[in-house]
Please model this.
Amino acid sequence: MSRKTAVIAGASGLMGQHLARHLIATGNWDVIGLARKPLPIRDMRWIRVDLGEVADCTRALDGLHEATHIFYAARYDHPEGVRESAAVNTTMLKNLINILDPVATLTHVHVLHGTKHYGSQLGPVPVPIDEDSPRAPGDNFYFEHEDFLRDRSRGKPWRYTISRPHAFCDLTTDYPRSLGLVFAVYASIQRELGEPLWFPGSAIAYETRTQFSDLSLLARAITWMADEPRCANQAFNVVNGDYPRWSEMWRKIAAWFGVNVGAPGKIQLTQLMADKGPVWASMISKYGLRQTRLEQLALWPYGDYILKPEWDVVSSMAKARRFGFQDSVDSGAMFVRQFEYYRAERIIP
Ligand SMILES: NC(=O)c1ccc[n+]([C@@H]2O[C@H](COP(=O)([O-])OP(=O)(O)OC[C@H]3O[C@@H](n4cnc5c(N)ncnc54)[C@H](OP(=O)(O)O)[C@@H]3O)[C@@H](O)[C@H]2O)c1
Model:
């Protein structure tokens, strides 16, 4: 198989890193990562660049003739609760394409988006959500990216694809916006205190159906889109493919940690965890855990945000299946793998 050269924008981000490692492990790719603060990842080259600054992009990128694929997984800074800037995120993609398109031998551009495309974070949307479901009201860089790529790819030798995953799930231990870490650290503290695993959302939220995107599955889906000619210029939902109710997931999480299930609607993680730093510090010494600080380990407002919707969030995988992608992941087993990993890494007791 001929070698391909992937330029991953946002290669230090949660999915960017995962995708870089996935491509390197196949042995078929040369991988070049772009970020303002590169990370050490073996067997890849880094280019430090601010994609929002056209002059910096020109300086850093206009010699990248070898790029065959762009995987765009960047997203400009957005503190929790602050909306992503459509303007900055759109400029970042445009700067990258404007510079690489004329100089490189591009065959494929993939952009990583999400279910916010459909507005499922804003209120109920008809489910299952398919890829032709209407765009959310208001602005969103996803729309500007998609419209830009559709126009820009006309008459070019390259095609584009778009993935629309939901909440990312991965084994990383140093990324606090992670549901696995939020659940694992919260449940460990509750067990230590002899308290139940209260569900932060309402009783209605507790019975809604939800979904997750395992990052290994997402990496396989993204490389499949890049390789499958029928995917050209198409968008695909990419989720695990099961749609558990939170109540089912909650019972499984509580059972794994050996704690009682608590009623919904009584607590917010952000408030409940606010004074638990000393408990966590004492657990670190008691169980010989790796040194971590509670407020940096898990992002509690993210947990509250994900557990809040009082409506089903269900993206159809029918289109991906029709086009040939058959992979799925059992979400309960996925969380158990994460908890076992955190225990093995001495993050939790
Ligand atoms: N996280 C989720 O659960 C989730 C779920 C569904 C969809 N998504 C979507 O997936 C995409 C990626 O999300 P993520 O969570 O993997 O992102 P992330 O972890 O926040 O990473 C963002 C990446 O973008 C880079 N970046 C930001 N500003 C930059 C700039 N000016 N120039 C160059 N690089 C820049 C960052 O590196 P530097 O800071 O070093 O520059 C980092 O590598 C987004 O479109 C997001 O909406 C995420």
Residues 171-211+243-313+330-343 form one domain. The chain has a mean pLDDT of 96.
